[in-house]
Amino acid sequence: MESYAYFEGHFVPHAQAKVGIMTHALNYGTACFEGIRAYWSQDHFSIFRIKDHYLRLSNSVRILKMSLPHDVDELCRLTVELLAMNPYREDVYIRPMAYKCSEVLGVRLHNVNDGFFIFITPFGAYLDTEKGIACCTSSWKRIDDDMIPARAKITGAYINSALAKTEAVDNGFDEAILLTRDGHVSEGSGENFFLVIDGHLVTPPVYDNILVGITRQSIIEIASRELGIETEERTIDRTELYIADECFLTGTAGEVAPVLSIDHRPVGSGAIGPVSAKLQKLYMQIARGERDAYNHWCTFLKPSLVEIARK
Ligand code: PMP
């Protein structure tokens, strides 16, 4: 069955959604995007925090002096419609992108038109969340807010992540932890960072050049509400990584990924810790729409009902 994308105002077959080689965003990295997961169970999808993703996209485009073609509610509606018309009945990743679409030369943000698309693709685990992962501190430093703002999810900024990720994998690790220019912990190449120290959570503050993650915010709330564990948002020294009790990464793609070693040193006992395990289980249940108290975070879609409604 054919898959569809939303491209420049229309639902089109995925294969027809193409841009030209002079597209500004392709040449200069001038685009903002999101990554949203929709989890499939039996007969329905649970799309996790779709509205929060579009709210973050709204902030990203403001930083790049761009505008979105619709308001957040309409973007959510279009995304749900696109998911329903696609043939997938498995976990998927949804990728909206606002991009500088003019085919013109010249590095700038002004006098270039804005385009928008959404595509959907099947997507399983991104990191080995069951076994846990091995991390290194990267030799690449995290981009600063006054260079390329990490707060905005900008395609061009992902060169920073790609350099760090590939260096880590080339050196036998699963993921990189990037430090700020002044040597403090920022985040993973595509995930936020948490330590468990003396029974509470510690995570870098927004001003340490992180992308303000939706999973991060969810974990802070879930830990407090379900486990009575509070999170301290503060600057973290590199050597705290070596003495923490537990460590995990959070992200839409990475979900809750326990970190078992950093720079070849075991984190805590070197096995998945109890707090990480509990949070991982809770997060997956919540994101899949299995916990009523958090259903306001999930948009449920039963494709069979949509098809019936269309007939
Ligand atoms: N940091 C970076 C650099 C990322 O790319 C992501 C993934 N979007 C995250 C953190 C986690 O953000 P979220 O939980 O919203 O997916």
DSSP strand tally: 17
Question: Tell me about the biggest sheet?
Answer: 9 strands, mixed
Low-confidence stretches: none
Q: Assign the CATH superfamily of the largest domain.
A: D-amino Acid Aminotransferase, subunit A, domain 2
Helix count from the secondary structure assignment: 7
- Which molecules are bound besides the chains? 4'-deoxy-4'-aminopyridoxal-5'-phosphate
Portion of residues within helices = 25-40%
CATH topology of the largest domain: D-amino Acid Aminotransferase, Chain A, domain 2
Taking the alpha carbons of the first and last residues, their distance comes to 18 Å
> What class, by secondary structure content?
alpha+beta
CATH class annotation of the largest domain: Alpha Beta
Q: How large is the radius of gyration?
A: 20 Å
- pLDDT averaged residue by residue: 97
Gross morphology: globular
Strand content: 25-35%
Q: Number of folding domains?
A: 2
Provide the CATH architecture of the largest domain.
Alpha-Beta Barrel
- H/E element sequence: EEHEEEHHEEEHEEEEHEEEEHEH
